[in-house]
Design brief:
eight-stranded antiparallel beta sheet, single chain, 1201 residues, Alpha-Beta Plaits, alpha+beta, Jelly Rolls
């Protein structure tokens, strides 16, 4: 019999002294009910216990003899079965208490298996009498008498340990009581039961009342196999079960049709998941008389959180918002006058989303997820931005207000307005044709040839030639245009050739930002030792050594920066064979600069000659001229070239075309806007009589003969300021996407002269500047040792295994795989045998993560220092929170403070030839200096995490060390940068298309893909199915907030939709953090994205890519300084301010190419990706960097082929 609320109230009511009945409070009634339920459960348990019928006598459990054989394992307990014996069957009935009913099928199955395996007894559970008042659930046993007796005895002991807990204590069971009061569902008990069953926790769950009763659990407490504690049950409830109550969709009956469909699809999908998984439930209803839809989730924590996040994302994305546009009055009037039909079309397309466009009120009304799309579509109707880029020879001038007003007036005539104007000038090498005599044409008049030579003589202010990315220039001592040198090469004329390293031993200094005058000394043979013979091989070899040694040392000091290098020519005029001297020096510099090591350096190499070295100057000049051109048809000179960039906004594309065709340049860029310089005026007077003849000669020479195609800089114009020679316009409409993947660009220049108008096409070779991309690096060569610390202290290269230590470090999750974890308080360290680092170049590198600085001074990373003897003690550590590298006496300390709890890449490099000690931090040089000697130690233990000689024993390392390696060679700065920042590189080339070609060899997997012809060799192709993807994981850097990154690849899409690159913390595409880094917007435009610290996805929107046979280069970069950038074919397509990046702060992180897997269903924020899902097309040469690539890097990547 069950007491009703009225009966409980009657029992608890009392009369006060005035005879008035005081009714109990709600709290008193709840406490009474709770105590009543406890008493009821205890009473029923004791009743069942007393009524059990015992069919066989109790006997002790038979011990397992040694001749039993193992047959299976259960819960890590080995279960053994006795050899076959004569079978004398006997049957018995054992009764299970009614509180432990048969609803827990997992428990019943395991109980039957347990009995069979342990006792070799067959059992059958009868459910026929389950509902009878005084009878529990019966289990029938059949087997050997002794075994059956043992089973019966053990079952009786087992069921005597059943305990019952009712969750009704308002202090300790607050969470479960909240479920009791608010969770109205018939699925809650099933969900809880399934959660515990799947973890093999044998419990029975029920409620005291179907809907609002207290939760009750029955469980075993005193057996090894089936027992569970109350504390463990509470822990599972608090940590693994969640309830999200009443997510409200207001005014549900009036929401937009698309939103309603999406909600219905969402609920249907969640109900299907509920039936499949059974560990969570979705509860929803519309209460009578209300317009709100309320949805709740109950069940397994991760499933509830995911469903909650998906639903909130769906609600937020479809939330109707009103916002004010930034259109000007002119733009709104233009839309109303010319674009009403297009605006109505947009509204009709999104009618199911209740989109309203109110241009007169300057307001738009749409769901949140359509805000950017609607705004962009309207912008496309009114907002066109184009740059006009002009280049001309000459120094820049100041744009006056009158001139700017004139430009604005002309632009306004064509419905354009100036957005910005940039004017920059830099000196460049200009190449121009000149008048010559030919064998097929009548000779040009001598007067014309003379004037032509005079003209170019006046222009050639700096005699120069370009080689690779560098230039060689000739200057006279009194030339004020000669720049100040960063490095000066001084030749030591000596009879006995000395070792150049000895010459520079005391003079070579560490170059810093404030020291701009480094002097290097190199020897040349005395002129008395040189023969006049042109084939003097000794002299040639000495010059070759002189140049190669000097450029080699400069490359070390310059660190790939722009440098001005001056060769002092003092006493060179004493050589009788000056022609040979000039030719050998210039040609050797040319050879060196064209090598792969120096090809990308940007140097200006100057030769300075005094007034007494005229003949020597002319010899060098002739050599320069001879290698500048294969013929004498052209002349080069070094002269300022100005770039004038105008960015115009227009609301009509044809307006810009009219504007371009206007005579704006004749009005603004002739002599009226920029007065001629003195040089221009002089040339104007000098050439006024011969210019017509020059033009005619040029046309005959290059159009009639058409013998040679010449490459010239884009937009380089022949003296346009004079207005008499040429007025040239190079107009470039910036295209967001190039139409060619070759290494040259083609532009059209229209040239207007006084006699005729011609159109010519010039081809320009791309010069990408300094970059470490596409350079080879051989990280594994000359390896001495490598400790990956993946669960062991083994050196997998040289065999220098960890041999002893008072306390060895433990292992934790590392930068790659596992890492060694050092605890300074436990004095943990690793000792190995002696490693030969004496008198050799070497490089020691590792990933480290300091977790504390408990010592007062040093925290040792590695060492080879049995005692403190000068140049006999290698100690590499963190001293006063900065990196430290020394041999004891020859020591250097870094300048950057090392943060705690961050993975950093460190390299300690020593060059035996130059004696340079260099510390690199995260791929970049931290400090560099020159040691007086090399490391000379020849005995002792190599130590990791401690140093035996310096500050021992107070220098133990605190933190993690991973991927520690030693190479017996020095490493270039580019190699170190690639090792530190190239997180992954996938070429997709056969025969191993899915391996990582980068330094980390991260793990990968692929599904539903194929290998096709690519931009370089082969590429990976995606079919567009839900199972087509490529995935790589182990990118620790992508799990670190504020860590810059870059993604690059070549793409050839077949359909402009889907996800290109997806980041997640789960291999299934979801997890605690997940979003698409790159994908396609709904209009087909490519978008790059980043998740900021306020959990908002910021998007950089690029162009709509063409679907063709051409490959397209895509680069995405992010850094706190420069924000999010998207490059398409070496063009910066979009740049968005985003100073933060919210990372997961966990390892590993997964990058999925061509899909987002389970993250496509709304689990992850899609940002501006129109339809997150599979990608259809091909991708090649995918790279992931943990740094922001520069524009030079992007250029080198795009034009490497």
């Amino acid at each position: 019999m069950k007491l009703t609320d009225d009966q409980i109230e009657y029992l608890l009511s009392v009369l006060n002294q005035d005879g008035i009945e005081n009714k109990p409070t709600q709290r008193t009634k709840r406490v009474f009910k709770a105590e009543l339920e406890v008493w009821k459960a205890a009473f029923e348990f004791e009743r069942d216990k007393q009524k059990r019928k015992i069919d066989v006598a109790l006997t002790s459990k038979t011990s397992i003899s040694s001749d039993w054989k193992p047959v299976s394992k259960m819960n890590n307990i080995e279960i053994r079965r006795k050899p076959t014996m004569p079978y004398y069957p006997i049957s018995a009935i054992s009764t299970i208490p009614s509180s432990m009913d048969a609803r827990n099928t997992v428990y019943m199955q395991n109980l039957i298996q347990y009995i069979s395996n342990i006792y070799n007894v067959e059992c059958h559970i009868s459910l026929e009498d389950q509902q009878k008042e005084n009878v529990g659930i019966q289990i029938q046993l059949s087997g050997l008498r002794k075994n059956v007796e043992n089973v019966h005895s053990d079952l009786q002991l087992l069921f005597e340990t059943v305990n019952t807990k009712i969750f009704n204590n308002e202090k300790t069971d607050e969470k479960v009581i909240y479920w009791s009061k608010n969770l109205y569902s018939d699925s809650d008990i099933t969900v809880i039961q399934k959660i515990f069953d799947k973890q093999k926790l044998f419990t029975i769950w029920e409620k005291t009342d179907i809907l609002s009763g207290y939760y009750v659990v029955h469980y075993f407490t005193k057996t090894d196999v089936f027992s569970v504690s109350e504390d463990y049950i509470n822990q599972k409830i608090n940590n693994e079960i969640s309830y999200v109550r009443d997510i409200v969709i207001s005014n549900f009956v009036n929401i937009q049709e698309n939103f309603r469909k999406k909600l219905e699809q969402f609920i249907t999908k969640k109900k299907q998941e509920q039936q499949q998984l059974e560990t969570y439930a979705v509860i929803y209803c519309i209460y009578p008389g209300q317009t709100e839809l309320k949805i709740s989730f109950f069940g397994q924590n991760v499933l509830v959180k995911r469903a909650n996040r998906q639903l909130k994302y769906l609600i937020d994305q479809n939330r109707l918002i009103t916002w004010t546009t930034e259109f000007t009055l002119t733009q709104r009037n233009y839309l109303l006058d010319n674009c009403l039909h297009q605006l109505e079309t947009i509204e009709y397309e999104y009618k199911d989303d209740n989109v309203k466009i109110k241009i007169r009120e300057n307001q738009l009304y749409a769901p949140h997820y359509l805000k950017i799309k609607i705004q962009q579509r309207i912008n496309n109707l009114i907002d066109q931005q184009y740059p006009l880029i002009f280049q001309y020879i000459g120094n820049d001038s100041i744009l006056t207000n009158d001139e700017k007003l004139q430009l604005e007036e002309i632009a306004g005539q064509f419905k354009c307005q100036i957005d910005k104007i940039d004017l920059q000038t830099k000196k460049e090498i200009v190449t121009l044709p000149k008048v010559i005599n030919t064998s097929t044409l009548k000779s040009s008049p001598k007067f014309i040839i003379k004037k032509s030579k005079e003209f170019y003589s006046s222009l050639s202010l700096l005699k120069t030639t370009s080689i690779a990315n560098s230039t060689i220039e000739l200057h006279l001592a009194n030339d004020v245009t000669a720049p100040q040198a960063d490095i000066t090469i001084i030749s030591m004329i000596t009879s006995d050739i000395e070792d150049d390293s000895k010459l520079n031993g005391n003079n070579l200094q560490n170059k810093t930002d404030t020291d701009k005058s480094v002097k290097l000394f190199y020897s040349l043979p005395h002129w008395s030792k040189v023969n006049n013979d042109q084939n003097d091989t000794d002299f040639k070899n000495s010059i070759k050594t002189f140049i190669s040694n000097s450029l080699k040392d400069i490359s070390v000091l310059s660190l790939n920066k722009e440098n001005i290098i001056t060769f002092s020519t003092d006493e060179w005029d004493n050589y009788s064979s000056r022609k040979q001297l000039a030719e050998e020096i210039i040609n050797e510099i040319k050879v060196q600069l064209e090598t792969s090591k120096l090809f990308n350096v940007n140097w200006r190499i100057l030769f300075i000659f005094n007034d007494n070295q005229t003949d020597l100057y002319n010899r060098f000049l002739q050599t320069i001229l001879s290698i500048t051109m294969n013929t004498n048809n052209y002349e080069q000179f070094f002269y300022p070239v100005s770039n004038f960039d105008q960015h115009y906004l227009t609301i009509e594309i044809y307006s810009l075309n009219k504007f371009k065709k206007s005579r704006i340049l004749e009005k603004c860029w002739g002599i009226t806007c920029y007065p001629c310089s003195k040089l221009c005026i002089g040339l104007l007077i000098l050439l006024s009589l011969l210019i017509l003849a020059l033009i005619a000669t040029f046309l005959i020479l290059f159009i009639g003969k058409n013998k040679q195609t010449k490459t010239t800089p884009i937009g380089t114009i022949i003296n346009p300021i004079t207005k008499i020679a040429y007025t040239t316009i190079t107009t470039v409409l910036t295209k967001m996407l190039a139409t060619s993947s070759t290494t040259t660009l083609t532009t059209t220049s229209t040239t207007t002269a006084t006699t005729s108008t011609t159109a010519s096409t010039t081809t320009t070779t791309i010069n990408c500047g300094t970059s470490c991309l596409n350079q080879s690096w051989i990280e594994a060569s000359d390896g001495l040792a490598f400790w990956p610390f993946d669960g062991s202290y083994v050196d997998i290269v040289g065999g220098y295994n960890g041999i002893r230590s008072p306390n060895l470090p433990t292992f934790v999750t590392g930068y790659l795989g596992q890492a060694a974890s050092f605890d300074a308080s436990m004095q943990q360290a690793i000792y190995t045998s002696y490693i030969p680092l004496n008198d050799v170049s070497f490089s020691i590198e590792a990933w480290i993560k300091p977790t504390g600085y408990p010592n007062s001074r040093d925290h040792s990373i590695v060492g080879l220092c049995p005692s403190k003897i000068i140049n006999h003690c290698l100690h590499i550590n963190i001293r006063n929170k900065k990196l430290y590298f020394g041999f004891y006496y020859d020591d250097i300390q870094g300048i950057t403070t090392i943060p705690l709890n961050q993975w950093i890449h460190v390299v300690f490099d020593f060059n035996l030839t130059t004696k340079l000690q260099t510390i690199y931090l995260n791929g970049y040089q931290d400090v560099q200096a020159i040691a007086s000697h090399s490391l000379e130690i020849d005995a002792g233990n190599f130590t990791i995490g401690i140093n035996e000689g310096v500050n021992f024993p107070y220098s133990y390392f605190q933190g993690y060390i991973d991927q520690l390696s030693i190479n017996r060679r020095t490493k270039s700065s580019c190699e170190i940068l690639e090792i530190a920042t190239l997180a992954g590189h996938f070429k997709f080339d056969t025969p191993s298309p899915f391996i990582d070609s980068g330094p980390n060899a991260v793990a990968t997997t692929s599904s539903g893909t194929s290998i096709v012809n690519g931009y370089k060799n082969q590429a990976i192709s995606f079919s567009g199915s839900s199972t087509s993807y490529f995935q790589a994981w182990g990118f620790t850097s992508l799990g670190s907030s504020q860590q810059p990154f870059s993604l690059t690849f070549w793409i050839k899409p077949q359909i402009l939709s889907g996800t290109i690159v997806h980041l997640s913390t789960s291999s299934l595409g979801a997890g605690s953090e997940c979003f698409p880094l790159l994908g396609f917007a709904s209009n087909g435009a490519i978008v790059a994205q980043v998740l900021t610290d306020n959990n908002i996805v910021v998007t950089a929107t690029g162009p709509i890519l063409p679907i063709s046979s051409l490959w397209i280069a895509i680069v995405q970069t992010w850094s706190p300084t420069n924000g999010l950038k998207l490059y398409v074919n070496n063009t910066l397509a979009s740049s968005v301010a985003a100073s933060t990046f919210l990372a997961s702060e966990i390892t590993p992180n997964y990058l999925t190419l061509g899909n987002c897997l389970n993250g496509c269903d709304g689990t992850c924020s899609g940002g501006s990706v129109g339809t997150p899902g599979p990608f259809t097309g091909a991708i090649d040469d995918w790279r992931i960097y943990s740094r922001e690539l520069t524009s030079d890097d992007v250029c080198a990547l795009c034009f490497a082929a």
